[in-house]
């Protein structure tokens, strides 16, 4: 009788734990869904959801609303407008944007993002910091972040400063993360059979190369996902990855062809900083 009672208690405990976990996950999913369905969200941003799969991607990385999260080079804030409201009440969100002393496009991009921080209530608690490989590497206080996220950026660091730029970036992420923290990477993917030199101008990177750079910075690969894969993309276009939407660098030339392909084929990688 005692064994039966203990077994019943154990089953009940497991059931309660599972129910609590499901409720917690539902709450997190609801926060992301609310951010995606925000009534004032620009239509041009919502149109990208079918290519970027933000809800699935953030779930794969393990985003929780009470985390301290750093987004690297958020640009116009496509992912920031999802992350900021999710983390606003119980977490902390750092936007590691272009440096204050940047010029041209980079300065305009940072200025427009800062306007969102001051004018858009979704961004009201965003902490804007500076990031550039080699020169500006303090994204957040050392060993403070639960998660660092970078979306479609690795090629920029590699094209700008080759391996030194990419490796410097990943070392900065490692420094900012707590032991056991997560690094999430989404990047345009170059087929492994292609020449390494194609990474210098195409906007695409080999998955094996990105993994190797992360490991050199100290990270361990936890998992990879095909959430953002696109088998229609050959990664061999006249203007590199920018030939495809949303850039459509060729303008109206073959626009229907490239729209039919959609956005680029992408790797989605989850790393951790060892304990």
TrEMBL record:
Keywords: Signal. It comes from Pseudoalteromonas nigrifaciens. This is Methyltransferase. Residues 1-23 form the signal peptide. Gene3D superfamilies: Vaccinia Virus protein VP39. InterPro entries: S-AdoMet-dep_MeTrfase_Alr7345, SAM-dependent_MTases_sf. The lineage of its organism: Bacteria, Pseudomonadati, Pseudomonadota, Gammaproteobacteria, Alteromonadales.
């Amino acid at each position: 009788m005692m064994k039966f009672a203990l077994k019943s208690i154990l089953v009940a405990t497991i059931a309660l734990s599972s129910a609590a976990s499901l409720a917690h996950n539902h709450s997190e999913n609801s926060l992301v869904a609310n951010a995606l369905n925000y009534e004032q969200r620009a239509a041009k941003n919502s149109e990208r959801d079918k290519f970027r799969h933000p809800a699935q991607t953030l779930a794969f990385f393990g985003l929780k609303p009470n985390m301290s999260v750093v987004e690297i080079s958020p640009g116009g804030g496509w992912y920031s407008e999802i992350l900021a409201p999710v983390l606003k009440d119980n977490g902390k969100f750092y936007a590691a944007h272009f440096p204050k002393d940047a010029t041209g496009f980079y300065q305009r991009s940072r200025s427009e993002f800062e306007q969102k921080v001051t004018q858009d209530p979704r961004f009201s608690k965003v902490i804007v910091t500076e990031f550039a490989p080699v020169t500006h590497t303090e994204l957040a206080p050392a060993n403070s972040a639960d998660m660092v996220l970078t979306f479609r950026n690795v090629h920029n660091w590699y094209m700008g400063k080759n391996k030194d730029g990419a490796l410097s970036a990943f070392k900065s992420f490692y420094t900012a993360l707590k032991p056991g923290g997560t690094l999430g990477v989404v990047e345009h993917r170059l087929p492994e059979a292609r020449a390494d030199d194609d990474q210098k101008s195409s906007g695409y990177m080999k998955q094996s190369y990105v993994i190797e750079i992360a490991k050199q910075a100290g990270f361990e690969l936890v998992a990879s996902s095909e959430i953002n894969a696109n088998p229609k993309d050959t990664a061999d276009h006249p203007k590199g990855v920018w030939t495809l939407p949303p850039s459509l660098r060729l303008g109206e030339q073959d626009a229907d062809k490239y729209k039919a392909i959609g956005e680029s084929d992408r790797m989605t990688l989850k790393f951790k900083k060892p304990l």
